[in-house]
Amino acid sequence: MLFWLVILSGKFSFAYFLQIKPLVEPTRDIIKETRIEYSWHDFVSKNNHNALTVVSVWAPVVAIYLLDIYVFYTVVSAVCGFLLGARDRLGEIRSLEALHKLFEQFPGAFMDTLHVPLPNRSSHQFSVQVVEKNKVDAARFAPFWNEIIRNLREEDYITNFEMELLLMPKNSGDLPLVQWPLFLLASKIFLARDIAVESKDTREEIWDRISRDDYMMYAVQECYYSIKLILTEILDDVGRKWVERIYDDIDTSIKNKSIHIDFQLIKLPLVISRVTALMGILRETETPELERGAVRAVQDLYDVMRFDVLTINMRENYDTWSLLTKARDEGRLFEKLKWPKNTDLKMQVKRLYSLLTIKESASSIPKNLEARRRLEFFTNSLFMKMPRAKPVREMLSFSVFTPYYSEIVLYSMAELLKKNEDGISILFYLQKIYPDEWKNFLARIGRDENTLESELYDSPSDILELRFWASYRGQTLARTVRGMMYYRKALMLQTYLESTTAGDLEAAMGCDEVTDTHGFELSPEARAQADLKFTYVVTCQIYGKQKEEQKPEAADIALLMQRNEALRVAFIDVVETLKEGKVNTEYYSKLVKADINGKDKSQEIYSVKLPGNPKLGEGKPENQNHAIIFTRGNAVQTIDMNQDNYFEEALKMRNLLEEFHSDHGLRPPTILGVREHVFTGSVSSLASFMSNQETSFVTLGQRVLANPLKVRMHYGHPDVFDRIFHITRGGISKASRIINISEDIFSGFNSTLRQGNVTHHEYIQVNLQVGKGRDVGLNQIALFEGKVSGGNGEQVLSRDVYRLGQLFDFFRMMSFYFTTVGYYFCTMLTVLTVYAFLYGKTYLALSGVGETIEERARITKNTALSAALNTQFLFQIGIFTAVPMVLGFILEQGFLRAIVSFVTMQFQLCTVFFTFSLGTRTHYFGRTILHGGARYQATGRGFVVRHIKFSENYRLYSRSHFVKGLEVVLLLIVYLAYGYNEGGALSYILLSISSWFMALSWLFAPYLFNPSGFEWQKVVEDFRDWTNWLLYRGGIGVKGEESWEAWWEEELAHIRSLGSRIAETILSLRFFIFQYGIVYKLNVKGSSTSLTIYGLSWIVLAVIIILFKVFTFSQKISVNFQLLLRFIQGVALLMALAGLAVAVILTDLSVADIFASLLAFIPTGWGILSIAAAWKPVMKKLGLWKSVRSIARLYDAGMGMMIFVPIALFSWFPFVSTFQTRLMFNQAFSRGLEISLILAGNNPNTGI
């Protein structure tokens, strides 16, 4: 309630003081104005208090009044979401530096959140007990951390060397400290050595300088204790006495604060070099020669310590030193070494060697950006509030559910090597986009990093690994299955490690049982427990048909089942039998798993006979509905097949499931919402725009919807449903055709209507961080937004939304409205505001009212009236809708990085992209509201860095953007030509700049964001392709991509009902205002405002249409009278030119009037064309359809040329293409990727 009171008070204050109050007095003045001379024949305003003038002034104000509440909602919700995110500790670890700095807190945080509670863990008070507690925490944390790192290596995000640095020791040995991963301690010993050698300070000062860096201190302490441990283990009794004597002397010197006196610290490098040499030998496999070398190395270390470093008085321990000296002189000292054979000791030797040899800082480890992001989010989430985890045996069981139809399961080698028109294959693309991951892959399969892919073909196993490597970087089912099976792997690890009870932990610290996890995947108990708690069902609707037809997808699904034993596949099996001479079709819903005895065979688990064909409604929800019976457990998570999952996030699933038992208000949760990570923001600027936009909604936006607004719905995968609640209340998918095109959100509607509660949780990015693939080409983005907008239009018409509106209280209803259909309505209203503003200005300009009133206002010095007529429409809703994105950046990236990111996006013309998207949403939402019939758009899930042809862009955007953009340009030109502007050019620019920006964005964004869009060779090819498409007449079975005629018929398919035709006719009437206004501005009409002038203009238009028909008369029909036709065409042309010349000479018709007439007739012709197209059946009956079609072709040709010519002009300059490439692929350049190789292609240049 408070939330909306803030918004409403801001909205009404803004509306009253800045919109309504300033216009009241000017409106009264306009109403009082009399004896206004109109430029045209006025029907309404002359004797009606200038009604149309008042409407022109107030229309954009009313429109803004209706939509400004959404702007206030956007800003307030963004601020609210920012504060809630900060409270939840989001973004605290946003860099590697922060991860390094806070790493020592991770084991404790992990034990507090992701580990099952242990008794007496928090009772330690003394320093020794605190160290022991920290060590126990580290020992429990290490197996999980190490498994996360190993999975990163298996996924090829990190190198073998990086994995070694990131792995954490087991901390199960005798060292009295916590051993941290090497990436924290690398190079610290050398820095500490330099401080000790170069410093002339006292011991306290030296140690104080070292202790300023915690990890430098830990490295020094670990080396100190490790050397003692290793030497004690490998040396004989005499050797042990020497080690004990040295360490006792050091401890005494430290206690007496005389270490810089008793020891020559300047010789420290010498000691380190001797220890390093010894460790280098001991880490190898034992041989007689190496054993002798080790003895010599220990003796060298003894000599250095005895003669170079020690300056203490040895008389105090005379017996020990004399024994050692005698043994050394006789060559007996250290002659027998116990070679390290214990696994822990060998690991300790290798670790000490690494500590003493790694000189480079590991502050940039890992280098891969995705690996960094994942580790940063996981470690950050350890400090966020979440329910305590229960043991696996006590946790809620759950299923994961993925619908699949016929998308790519696993890339075949043919698909990977197939080249597009530019000569680029998918494999080549992936190698250039992920160069580090390609090298890591080659290293993982035992190949050199410079190996060519062709060298892998001789090994079937390498070919299979290559196919999986590529598939894991695309939007494939294989990637989704791998990600979801991490749940099972996480549960097995958790079960395995929980098998040691808390009471046995301290006793087991010295053995490997607690911390050695290499066998957890083979543990029968762990596998059984995981299978009890987790099921993964992929509902492959046509898998049976694919098997019958031996499609490669069926074989690939069988391969996935073989590799993932817990994977279950549901499908609809169609069985046809002969019964009494008739074909009887039966439908079965089946569930199968891999048959362990057969490679491509599957074992049937369940078969349920259905009463008929289950596919009655939309395909995807019906696919889910038939298979929901095969899920098990208390919860079901819906995952789309363009999603991924990560092992470290799967560890948090049992915490998330506990939310069902947590307090979330009056009602328990029925849907657990989780944030998504959109993982396609990697290469092009469009990808980053889209991912930033979606990330803003799925994090900051949904955070506010869930709390405090309580109107979060289900916006698609990967939310977790209370399975029992939903399958007893209509399921999770409504499937009615058309109305449920966006089936996801209806699950949320259904849950809320039945008194459910939808929550949102951000400690887990399911896409646990389930990464969600999103299409990154502008066309794919437009199709996706069109699908969502059309689906939202259908929601407006649904009974679910009606019922929610009826049942919600006022404030919750407002929240619901502005986060669903209200968002799209306000988006459409933003565009309509521009139209209202420009048509109002056009009316004032063409009628002459604007000029008259402004002159009178200037004379009477009525500044308020003058200001009202010159309102500058600089209001851009896009500026305010960027607020959530900016605040999201600040929260999760930090202020400076957020500002840099936002400024970079501006330079990459993100405003153009978002303005273009505004047009997309407006068009599809508006068309669905007017005509209905939203349909599922297959957006494609391939890799999109290819040049899109001009004709393809024209087909997709002609009606949604180009027509509307040219209409806005026409309005601006009319206002420029006939409007009255006392301020001159500057006033016009300020008045119209935002409208010009919108129009140009709509016209040229598809070509601006088109790879190689300004490359001359491509432009020439595009023009040839476009003219072929435009002139090809088509026929039966010809698709819209091949012929303009077929495309035009498709574009009119949505106008089906009488209501649609009437609505289209009414909307098209606006185009006739241009002709009516402009003809009265021509010089030829003199001072007359008679209707006769308007009538004569229609006669001229009719003559022009007749001339057009004469010159475009069909050659097929005229084959028998070609000569006569050409004679008629010649005479008509001469008569037209003669008539025009006579009119110019004998009347006041000027050349400017001719161009003005074009400005008048072009929109009128489009209006007639639009009305004729709406009444297509009538036109066909009248025999006029072919004429209408030929005029429509002329208009499309003209519009195409208007857009094409500027592109061709810019293509003459090579630097434009270079600039565009940098603008589109700045992320790729900044990461050092060879994007130019992808754009240039592998094909040799062909001459044009």
From TrEMBL:
Domain of life: Eukaryota
Presence of the UniProt keyword Flavoprotein in the record: no
Keywords, ordered alphabetically: Membrane, Transmembrane, Transmembrane helix
Annotated GO MF terms: 1,3-beta-D-glucan synthase activity
Name under which the protein is recorded: Callose synthase 9
Bilayer-spanning residue ranges: 57-84, 816-838, 873-891, 962-980, 986-1009, 1062-1079, 1091-1111, 1123-1146, 1152-1173, 1194-1215
Residue ranges constituting the Callose synthase helical domain according to the UniProt record: 181-358
